[in-house]
Amino acid sequence: MIRQAAEGGVPAAMFVLANMLAAGEGTSRDEAASRRWLEAAAARDYPEALQGLAMLEPDPRKAELLMRQAAHAMTHRGAD
């Protein structure tokens, strides 16, 4: 059900699936697939995904930009 929602374009499902794949919860661990789902959710301005990418980013400037994008996306959450 989570995978179907993720494949259907639901950012929250993409984020959950990314975390499941990263941890190997309910599925085989797959860090590459996890990253792809995290990036897909981030591309839809899902704040938690942007923050997750920031935490994985080794470049401090890029990480800061992602955190700023996450904060901005959070301000729009109630407007949807």
Q: Using the CA coordinates, give the radius of gyration.
A: 13 Å
* Global structural class: mainly alpha
Taking pLDDT < 50 over at least 5 consecutive residues as the criterion, the unreliable ranges are none
Counting structural domains, the number is 1
Summarize the topology.
Blueprint: H1 2-7, H2 11-23, H3 31-43, H4 47-56, H5 60-75
Helix pairs in contact: 2-3, 3-4, 4-5
Question: Main traits of this protein?
Answer:
single chain, 80 residues
Structural commentary:
By secondary structure, the chain is mostly helical. The protein has one domain. Helices cover 72% and strands 0% of the residues. The chain is built from 5 helices and no strands. Helix 3 packs across helix 4 and helix 4 (47-56) runs antiparallel to helix 5. The longest helix is centred in the last third of the chain and has 16 residues, at 60-75. 29% of the residues are buried.
Short description:
By secondary structure, the protein is mainly α.
